[in-house]
Specification:
Distance between the termini: 25 Å
Radius of gyration: 14 Å
Strand content: 25-35%
Helix content: 25-40%
Number of helices: 4
Length: 127
């Protein structure tokens, strides 16, 4: 079973856009199957194949997630994040305003999927 300390070490070492593939592979190696990061406060829950879970504490202040999603606004913000040097909290605020509730990493498929509050998939991308 993986620990939050192991996850934190991997995140510290590889938790940036340029090393996202290696980040997911390292999580997979310690037994993480998926992780859900929630825009409301930035906490993340990591889940293993056996149902084992660990969660981080909040990463930022509580944000209001729009009750309905605006996919076009989300995609525009995602493009801005990819083109500019946007910090995590600024990105989180923009995604929450566009109605993104969470994103999920799948360490087996090496994907990131964004969901709105209704659980509808807004976008899924290979990492």
């Amino acid at each position: 079973m993986f620990t939050l300390e192991q996850v934190d070490e991997i995140h510290e070492r590889l938790g940036k856009a340029s090393t996202l593939g290696a980040f997911l592979e390292a999580l997979r190696e310690i037994g993480v199957v998926t992780s859900d990061s929630y825009l409301i406060d930035g906490h993340t829950t990591y889940v293993g194949a056996d149902g084992h879970e660990v969660s981080t504490g909040p990463a930022h202040e509580v944000l209001e997630v729009a009750p309905s999603s605006d996919k076009d606004a989300f995609l525009a913000e995602l493009k801005r994040v990819e083109e500019e040097s946007v910090g995590y909290v600024e990105m989180s605020r923009a995604f929450a305003a566009a109605g993104v509730e969470k994103w999920t990493f799948d360490t087996q498929a090496l994907t990131i999927t964004y969901y709105d509050r209704a659980g509808s998939e807004l976008l899924s991308e290979a990492v």
